[in-house]
Design goal:
Elements (H helix, E strand, L loop, with lengths): L4 E7 L2 E7 L5 H6 L20 E4 L2 E4 L12 E3 L12 H8 L9 H14 L5 H7 L11 H16 L2
Parallel strand pairs: 1-5
Antiparallel strand pairs: 1-2, 3-4, 3-5
Helix pairs in contact: 2-5
Length: 160
């Protein structure tokens, strides 16, 4: 059995310490000792995107990211997007556009969309679709998700 050590990182704006073994993934640490279940354990192979989080602002699959590569770095999960009970613009757009069906893929989609809008604040529908590649949804057909991304972009332009 591998020994554990304390891993220090910043999660959702707070410096945290969590026990981690050498082979643990970021997903293992988030869902285990940190108790953050927004990142879903879907395929655990990087195929579905349900575990997407932001690592230093970039969307990554937490199931493929070794926890120890995150030491001292900033991780944002879906739980960290809202502030004082107010949904982020992307979260609000997903709700308003009815882009949430079963909800399993939603946290990963929201984080992927957040990363997309940070690098491209006005994506075309095609750019929005490409921006969420790697995040699988079995329920929505992606139309409403693309609408939500475009609505969040419009809201961002209206409220810079």
């Amino acid at each position: 059995m591998s020994s554990t050590a304390d891993l220090d990182l910043v999660v959702n704006g707070e410096r945290v310490t969590a026990p981690a073994r050498p082979g643990d993934t970021l997903l293992d640490v988030l869902r285990g000792p940190l108790g953050l279940t927004g990142a879903k354990a879907g395929c655990r192979e990087g195929e579905c995107g349900a575990c997407t989080v932001l690592l230093d602002g970039l969307a990554v699959n937490a199931c493929l990211t070794l926890a120890w590569t995150c030491a001292g770095r900033e991780v944002v999960t879906v739980e960290g997007l809202s502030r004082d009970g107010v949904l982020s613009p992307v979260q609000r757009a997903f709700v308003d556009a009815w882009a949430v069906q079963c909800g399993f893929c939603t946290p990963g989609m929201v984080l992927q969309a957040t990363a997309l809008l940070a690098r491209n604040p006005d994506p075309t529908p095609e750019e929005a679709r490409r921006g969420i590649e790697g995040n699988l949804c079995r329920c929505t057909g992606y139309g409403r998700i693309v609408e939500a991304i475009r609505a969040a972009a419009a809201a961002g332009r209206a409220n810079p």
